[in-house]
Amino acid sequence: MLSKRIIPCLDVKDGRTVKGVNFVDLKDAGDPVELAWQYAQQGADELVFLDITATHERRKTMIEMVKSVARQLNIPFTIGGGITEIADAEALLNAGADKISINSAAVKRPELIADLAKVFGRQFVVVAVDTKLVGGKNMVHLNGGRLITELETEDWIKRAEDLGAGEILLTSMDHDGTKQGFDCNLLQTISQLINIPVIASGGAGKIEHFTEVFTTTGVDAALAASVFHFGEIPIPHLKNELKKHNIPVRL
After folding, report:
1. CB atoms < 10 A from the CB of 53, how many?
2. Is residue 250 part of a domain?
3. Based on the structure, what is the number of domains in the chain?
4. What is the dihedral of CA 215, 217, 222, 224, to 10 degrees?
5. Pairing of β 147-152 and β 167-172
6. Is the pTM for the entire model greater than 0.85?
7. Could you write out the three-class secondary structure of 192-242?
8. Can you give the residue range of the structural domain that contains 111?
9. CB 108: neighbour CB atoms within 10 A?
């Protein structure tokens, strides 16, 4: 069985790592390059960086950050935010990123998924999906969760896989930052629906939440931010506890 992955997520704004609750009330959480190095030392399996206010001007800042991170890291990392065309992805890949994550751009122009998969290979393409329960249905949201779409989450994720996504990063907005646990029901549904890896995101607050998501759903990885940034859950301790529950992890 493949090892389950633990992935710290760094939301980056103006060159700093930030963290909020339900996508708002952002607090500074430190220098992203420094945090990345610390996580690699602690045994994180991968990292995800999301430029949460991506604009053309900030893209240059992000590329410099990617170069700095690539020099420091020996683990794979994914970059997302503001990627709307092949050239954006190519610049980040050339700077040292291992994968790119697309969200709003993929919904607005689904063929972007196919284009990226064709040029770089589907293992390079992570499709991030922000979902929220609206009227009893899981609905896809864009622009950092501020804009609801007419897409049902399950339908969109299946289509993303068909178009060439190599991995799905699924964030429950209802659970994000609450530290009440992952949305295991939805994650199990999605894991059974598709044949590509699913990264669980939104709601991690204690070690038991990671144990639960790996034992009750078919997800391949669990992503979290604040519990790692503020030292609430040390990664080596987390992995040792997962191992005790017979969850395969890389120590």
Report:
1. 15
2. no
3. 1
4. -100
5. unpaired
6. yes
7. HHCCCCEEEECCCCCHHHHHHHHHHCCCCEEEECHHHHCCCCCHHHHHHHH
8. 5-244
9. 12
For residue range 34-47, what is the model confidence (pLDDT) as tens digits? 989 999 999 999 99
* Per-residue pLDDT band at 57 (split at 50, 70, 90): low
The residue type of 32 is P
**Which one-letter amino acid corresponds to residue 11?**
D
What pLDDT does 21 receive? 56
- For residue 59, the domain's CATH number is 3.20.20.70
Backbone angles phi, psi at 99, to 5 degrees: -145, 160
pLDDT in tens, 206-238: 999 999 999 999 999 999 988 998 899 999 999
Give the strand pairing for 99-102 and 125-134: parallel
Does residue 249 lie within any of the structural domains? no
pLDDT tier at 59, thresholds 50, 70, 90: low
199 part of a folded domain: yes
Q: Locate 53 and state its tokens.
A: 């206010």
Distance separating alpha carbons of residues 181 and 203, to the nearest angstrom: 4
What value does the mean pLDDT take over residues 189-198? 98
8 A C-beta contact, residue 171 and residue 142: no
Pairwise CA distance, residues 112 & 95, whole Å: 21
Helices (H) and strands (E) in the chain, counts: 10, 12
The residues assigned a catalytic role are 11, 130
CA distances from 2 to 44, 52, 218 (A): 16, 31, 12
Label residue 54 by pLDDT band (50, 70, 90).
low
* Tokens standing for residue 120: 């770089």
Nearest to 46 by CA among 228, 177, 245, 230: 228
Residue 22 in this model has a pLDDT that exceeds 70: no
